[in-house]
Specification:
With about 130 residues, this protein is an alpha+beta fold. It has a single domain, classed as PAS domain (Beta-Lactamase, 2-Layer Sandwich). The protein has seven helices and five strands; from the N terminus they run αααββααααβββ. It has a five-stranded antiparallel beta sheet with strand order 2-1-5-4-3. It is globular, with a radius of gyration of 13 Å. It starts with a helix and ends with a strand.
Length: about 130
């Protein structure tokens, strides 16, 4: 059984499981994965997201998520939730309906926002198939 059949966008306690996956295993997932560090620089980026967004991993990795990669996420619905979780030293696992608009025609998606105190990587997951 491969990673894609075991993990889904809605898998409980997904952040810890994502942290254990190799880049190749992340590429098997059928939803977009964007992982970023404490400085908001993208450090994990899977093939599903790359193909859907039209942005290659070399272009995205190491870049600030909320300013260079996806400024359309730099708002109270997404970026602020990560800041609030960090400031409050609380876990974040929220799923929201969203419309992506940058570099593409508007597309409805579900975003899952994942963060835990002490975790080196926070995640924005993108499910395009609704």
């Amino acid at each position: 059984m491969n990673t894609a059949t075991v993990l889904s966008f809605t898998t409980p306690a997904l952040l810890g499981q994502l942290a254990q996956l190799s880049a190749d295993q992340l590429d098997e997932l059928d939803f977009g994965v964007i992982g970023f560090d404490a400085d908001t620089n993208v450090c994990r980026y899977n093939r599903t997201e790359s193909e859907a967004a039209g942005l290659t991993a070399p272009r995205v990795l190491g870049q600030p998520l909320f300013t260079n990669v996806a400024p359309c996420l730099n708002n109270f619905l997404v970026g602020q939730r990560f800041e609030d979780a960090e400031d409050g030293n609380t876990a974040l696992d929220d799923t929201i309906d969203y419309v992506l608009t940058l570099r593409m025609r508007p597309i409805k998606v579900k975003l899952r926002l994942l963060a835990e105190p002490g975790s080196a990587v926070r995640y924005v997951l993108v499910q395009r198939r609704l």
